[in-house]
């Protein structure tokens, strides 16, 4: 049986298969890639029972609880969503083959920069099995081969999903490889496979990302934590500020684009602080603050913020508030403490808004909008591979286009250099 | 004196200064940056005596000989060229602040992707002191701070140049830092300075590049070796093939875009092989070849190629020739042995040319042009930081634009997520 043979391969053999497959996936036409994604969607639907049963094996042997366990659970609805994701990605524009720019040199040499697949993409991720399907869809759509290294808690679900996706007729052999998740050895081999893998994308907690960055020799796209700030300026529409602060903190506190810190202009602090603290407390948010905040909002309502509060990504219903002298103090505070993910200003002053957006050195800077919008789907990318926290290659939410590289085509008529 | 104080700083202190300077260089206007470059050019000119005398100190204590010593030597002409490079880069368009794209979402949210500086750029390089000036010019033009780690053989020249460039009035303190070159300790600190340095660009031999890639935790732009191929197709204009092969091999054999391998279509091998081998030998090129090549061109003229000849980057007047059955064998050979730098086809068959350019997985693919054109200057970039051999961030020759990152500006009117 294909599966057992497949499992018998070493990591090295799987990487070699992926490298060879990448030269085939790179040549697939857009129509062919879309047809493969549609067939994958059908296969996921028709195999939903075996997926659920593989998932049950994972759940039976899992000691995870609560939200962590929930991330692992598959249901008929979640499987239908997987199939839908495959179809949605099929509908997006194919970046491969696009001419990024072209020009002719004075000597007549014509140069064209065209978009090409990256090659082999390595993904290291944790529990959620839908990541398996989403990332396969994004990488196949962009003509890449993919090597997946999922979490051991989802081993049966991932194994079944990869079997289903990779056995769709027309998928080049080796284009979707799943590595052994029982030990860190496969992670180590994957991230050091220079020449076999073109980029590693770690999706998971900070510990995983740090491990990958410290040990990889293959280039990495670093995704990461969001210690996101909202600065409420003295000229802000306070009702607008209320709704943005509440939305950014409360709507989904466990994600990286949720707000963690609130900075308030001193000129409105006496009016606005008691009001927003009240609203946050009403919604079950724990409020911490600097001395000024505690004085104005009431020390009994606000726990004294410690040094580490200004750097911490809470990922839960907790916020730390600081009163600042002006927009420049807000900018300096953000550039010092932010993880450079997403930071927002609420102001009616256009000049100040642009000053803030220019000077805050983050992947996304927002004016009068909730930080929760920093997301591939909300940006209109139709999908998201992650949110890059580095400056190289791509920064902020990234999807199809960022899974490509480029190549120069140089056309002469016997040109030689003098 | 500023110099001695500066030298007394630790690597860590210099990196911190650079990090802080980057927030200032990022805000310099184009006019201000161009004016700094002009002032730097004037300072290099007016200080040419002290530069020459510092360079003499390096030469006096150097044991380098021949071409390696020549790379280190400064002359009044070379100093004038440094000043010219600064002025040339001042004239180029400033990519910082450009809107890469912008769009409005159906909910009214306006999103703008703008070009911003990378931040702090670390350069590790070997002997040539002009690299000090060129890279400072490119990084200052793009609003970045730069940390230089030059070779110990050029320590006095680099020290003097950095003193001159960094003391131009208006250059933010810490924007141009030079690290100690007496040991590898500073390299190690630089390449692991996550959070302080945004990208490392190693410019030098393969050993240096490998060391950086294996030890860096900061993202790297890998530049590297060029085992470049020319495939002469059966339909090639043979006179054109002659001039391209000779130019690519002979014009400057020591550089990465020189041709190292020649593949010849079997249908023209009997006619073309003796001819091109004769022309190469006339120009002092050592010719190696496969069995077929030796048979057709004469075994006494062609040394038998060994396995390692197909992978080696000679960087001298030596070439290895192989007869191939067709364009697909040429493509397969190139994709197997090439360093994916620059590979060319000479053919009169347009369809075959496009087939070759699409399937050869190299940074640059050329049709009827010498591989020697793969160069930032020849591409019209006005300058070159290097030639990237990786697929992430940039691929092929890169200059100003590739020294930038991007940021998303998101503008709402009180937008919150539902």
Written description of the protein model:
2 copies of one chain form a homodimer. By secondary structure, the first copy, chain A, is α/β, with parallel strands linked by helices. Chain A has 2 domains: 2-224 and 395-410, Aldehyde Dehydrogenase, Chain A, domain 1 (3-Layer(aba) Sandwich), CATH 3.40.605; 228-376, Aldehyde Dehydrogenase, Chain A, domain 2 (3-Layer(aba) Sandwich), CATH 3.40.309.10. In chain A, 42% of the residues lie in helices and 21% in strands. Chain A has 16 helices and 16 strands. Chain A has helices at residues 2-7, 11-25, 30-46, 48-60, 66-72, 76-91, 130-141, 155-166, 185-191, 206-215, 238-250, 266-282, 291-297, 327-337, 350-359, 376-379; strands at 99-104, 110-117, 120-125, 145-149, 176-178, 199-203, 228-232, 259-265, 286-289, 303-304, 318-324, 342-346, 364-369, 386-388, 396-398, 404-415. In chain A, strands 10-9-11-8-7-12-13 form a 7-stranded parallel beta sheet, sandwiched between helices. The first copy, chain A, has a 4-stranded parallel beta sheet with strand order 5-4-3-6, sandwiched between helices. In chain A, α13 (291-297) links the parallel β9 and β10. The longest helix of chain A has 17 residues, at 30-46. Chain A starts with a helix and ends with a strand. Residues 1-5 of chain A have low confidence and may be disordered. β16 of chain A pairs parallel with β13 of chain B.
